Amino acid sequence: MNSDQKAFFAEPGTLDMSDYVVLDYFFESTVEPAEAAAHLCQEQSTAQWKRVGVDEDMRPRHAAKVIDLIVERNPAQPCIPFQIEAWTKLWACRVKIAYPIRNIGASIPNLITAACGEGAFFSPGIHAIKLHDIIFPAGYLEQFEGPKFGVAGLREWTGVHHRPLFFGVIKPNIGLAPEPFRDIAYESWLGGLDVAKDDELIFDSAWSPFEKRTRLLGEARRDAEQKTGKKCCYLANITDEVDRLIELHDIGVRNGANMLMINAMATGLSAARMVRKHTEVPLVAHFDFVAPFSKSPYYGVHSRVITKLQRLAGFDAIIFAGMGARMKTYRSAVLDDVKACRDTLCPADAGCPVKAALPVPGGSQWAGSLAPLHQDIGSTDFAIVPGRAVFGHPGGPRAGAISLHQGWDAIKTGVSLADYAREHQELAMSIRHNTQ
Amino acid sequence: MNSDQKAFFAEPGTLDMSDYVVLDYFFESTVEPAEAAAHLCQEQSTAQWKRVGVDEDMRPRHAAKVIDLIVERNPAQPCIPFQIEAWTKLWACRVKIAYPIRNIGASIPNLITAACGEGAFFSPGIHAIKLHDIIFPAGYLEQFEGPKFGVAGLREWTGVHHRPLFFGVIKPNIGLAPEPFRDIAYESWLGGLDVAKDDELIFDSAWSPFEKRTRLLGEARRDAEQKTGKKCCYLANITDEVDRLIELHDIGVRNGANMLMINAMATGLSAARMVRKHTEVPLVAHFDFVAPFSKSPYYGVHSRVITKLQRLAGFDAIIFAGMGARMKTYRSAVLDDVKACRDTLCPADAGCPVKAALPVPGGSQWAGSLAPLHQDIGSTDFAIVPGRAVFGHPGGPRAGAISLHQGWDAIKTGVSLADYAREHQELAMSIRHNTQ
User: Does pLDDT of A349 surpass 80?
Assistant: First the structure.
C-alpha cells in the first residue's frame, strides 16, 4: 500500500464519528484488500484530491475512510460469474467505511449516490460488492423527520393493542369497480380486519378512479366503525407520478382514506419523504423494485439498508418480503428487515431519534402464519398482510377476517390451531383452504 | 397446463397491441415453462380474478398475457446460487408478456411496479428472472413528454455539430470552494471543452453552496463564450431531495447553468419527469444506483430498460457505464444502452414519438477513447465524459480540453494518435498520462 492509499485509512478513535455515516460492505477483490478498500473509498469520495500544480489535499476533510477491514477468506472461485476476467488470487472481505456527512448532507438521493453509486460499484480490483448496512450518528438522524406516527402512534391510530395488526389486500386487486370493491372491503371490516388495503397494483384508473374509490371506501369504513364500535382503516395506494402525490394524498385524506401507501422504490424514497412532510395520516411502504438489487448474497444492496432508508424517509409501516416458499427470502434476511424497522439506527445501543416503523413481512399469509411469525419476531409489534386468506376465503371476506382473529385467539389461549378450529368454523375453513 | 393457466396466454393477433406494453423477460424455472409463465402473468396482474361466489372474470381485460415463450435450454445447474431449494429439472426461458396499459396508465412508478415489482420477482416456480426489455406502443409514448431537446436540440443548444460532444467532470470533484472550482472550469472552456460538469458527488453543500457555485460558473462560462466565440456549457448537478429540485433548477438556470444533471435512480425517475415538465434547459442523467440491479446476466433489470425509462422521463443525455476495464460492462451491454437512447422505443421500425437522447458512455475516458467508441457506435452522436484526462492533465484543464480536440482531429484526418501527437503537445502529454 502506498502513501496515497494510506490516506484513505483512519486509525480508530481519530475521527469524530458524529461527522460520518458508516457504510458496511462485503466485497471480493482480485487485488490486495487494503488496496481494494482504498480504491473503494477514493472512487466514492475524493476521486481526485488536488488540482494540478497546487499543493493541497482534500482527503483529510472529504475522503471516505476505512475504519475496519476483515479478510474473511480466500475463495477458490469467484462468488459471482460476471464482471471478472483475469485473477490469480481472490479475497472475500468485509469493510466498514466512514463516509463524511459534509459531502452529502441530510439528503436521501445524495446518500444513495455516495453509498450505492458509480464509485461503490465501479471500483478497481473489486468485482463483487454488496452494501450490507448503514449506521448513522444521532445528530444526522435528527435532520430527518422519520415516521410521523411510528409503532406506538400507529397502535393508537388503529386502536389495536397487544396483538399483531391484521392488514388485508382487497381482491380481486385489479378490474373491480369502486362499488363492489367497497362492498368487499366493508365485509372485511365487519369481520374485524384492521386495515383493508389497496393492492400495490391498483392505481388511479378510469375503471377505479382514486377520487371515487377513496370516497366510497372512506364512507364504508366509517359505517363499519359505527356498526362494529371498532376503528377501521382503509389504506389507499397513492403511488403515481411524483407531481401527483400531494394531490392524491389530499383527495384520499379528505375522502376518508386514513392510511396511505406508496410503492417506495418504484416512486422514489425522496418523493416519499416529501409526502411525509405533508401527511396527516400514517404512511405505509410496499416493496416493489427491492428484490432486483437485494437478493444476491454477493452483489447489490441488502434489503435491510432499504428498510432503514424507508424508515428514514418517514414510513410508519414497511411491507417487505416475508417468510414462506413463495417469497424465496432467507429467514435471517426477514429478521434483518424486522430489526431495521425497530432497532436503533445508531451504533450499538445508542438512542435513536427516529421512531420505529411497524414491520410487515408479506407474502401469501393466513391465520396459520401468525404463530411462527410471532415466535420468530418475539413480539406482537408486527402486521400480517394476507390477500387470498381474507378476500378469497370460501366464506367471504367477513369470514376471512374472522379467521385471522380466531388464529390469534388460539395462540393466546395456548391451543393448537386444529383444536381451536373445532369450534370456530371460519378458522376451520381457512385451514382447509390454505393447507389443501 | 390447466384452463386457469391458459387464460394467461394470448394467441398472436388476438390482442390490440396499442393497449399493451411488452415486457421481455429471461427466467429460469423449476416447473414447466408454460405453468411458470402463467404464474408470472398472474402475479403481476390479476392475482385473484373473481370475487368469491360471483361469476366474473377480470382476466380478459386486465390480465398480463404471454404472447411468446421460448425454452432456450435445460441447464444442468441453476444460473444463480440463491433462491432455489429443491429441483429436478430446470428450464431457461425467454418470455414476452403483453401488459395491459389500462392497469397502469402513463405513469413511470406504476409501470415499474408492474414490470419490476413483487409480482415479477416473487412468482412461483421461478427462481431467476431478469427484465431484458420493454417495448411501447406509440400511443402510449405520446402521453410522455420525453426529452425536451433530444440529440438534434442538444446539438443546436451546444453548437456542436459533426463530432462527438466533449463533457468533462470538474475535478477535484469534492472539497473545492466555488472560486477555484470556477477557475479550473474556465480554463477547460478556454481549451474548448463543450460541457464542464459537476461530479455526481457534488451537491448543495456548505463548502460549495449551489447558489454561489452556479453564479460563479454561470458568469465564467459567459466570459469564456466571449473570449472563445464558442458556446460553453455548465452542467450543474441538482440532485437533492425531491422537494428541492424545482428550486435548484430555478436557481441554477437563473445563475447561468445551462444544463442540469440529476442522479436519476438515486433521486427517482418520476421526480426527473417532474423537472422535465418544468425545465428550460437540457437535462442529463447520471447512472448511480443502476449497477446493483442490472449487472447480473440472470437476475434483475437490464440497464437498457433503465436507459429507456430515463429517456421516457425526459433526459436529453444519458450517462451510463461505458467501455473499459474499470466499468466491468460487457461491450454488448454498452451498445444496448446506446441503442436504447437512439432507436425507436416502439416495435421494430415503427416511428417513435419520443425524441432520441444523446448516449454518454462514461468511465475513465481520454482522447484515445474516441476512436474505438466512434467505431463501435458508428456515429458521431455521442459524448465522452472524462474527468482526470481534462482536469488531471499535466498541462492543466485547458491543455486537457485541447487534447480531446486533437484526438478527434487525428481521427478526422485519418492519422494515428501517435503520429498526430508528434506536432500536438497536449495530445502527446495526454498519451503519456493515460498509457503510462
Answer: no
SS (HEC) of chain A:
CCHHHHCCECCCCCCCHHHEEEEEEEEEECCCHHHHHHHHHHHCCCCCCCCCCCCCCCHHHHCCEEEEEEEEECCCCCCCCCCCCCCCCCEEEEEEEEEEHHHCCCCHHHHHHHHHCHHHHCCCCEEEEEEEEEECCHHHHCCCCCCCCHHHHHHHHHCCCCCCEEEEECCCCCCCCHHHHHHHHHHHHHCCCCEEECCCCCCCECCECHHHHHHHHHHHHHHHHHHHCCCCEEEEECCCCHHHHHHHHHHHHHHCCCEEEEEHHHHCHHHHHHHHHHCCCCEEEECCCCHHHHCCCCCEECHHHHHHHHHHHCCCEEEEECCCHHHCCCHHHHHHHHHHHHCCCCCCCCCCCCCCCEEEEECCCCHHHHHHHHHHHCCCCCEECCCHHHHCCCCCHHHHHHHHHHHHHHHHHCCCHHHHHCCCHHHHHHHHHHHC
| Chain B residue with minimum CA distance to A268 | B268
Q: Which of B70, B103, B135 is the last residue of a domain?
A: B135
Could you tell me if A33 and A158 lie in one domain?
no
Residue A111 lies in domain: 3-135
CB-closest option in A274, A292, A328 to B301: A292
A107 near B CB under 8 A: yes
Domain annotation covers residue B140: no
Residues B187, B66 within the same domain: no
Q: Which of residues 260-299 of A touch B (CB under 8 A)?
A: 263, 266-271, 273-274, 277, 286-289, 291-293, 295-297, 299
Mean pLDDT, residues B411-434: 97
Q: What is the pLDDT of residues B376-404, one digit of tens each?
A: 999 999 999 999 999 999 999 999 999 99
Domain contains A355: yes
| B330 occurs within a structural domain | yes
Whether residue A169 is found in the same domain as residue A66: no
Q: Report, as an integer, the average pLDDT of A335-355.
A: 93
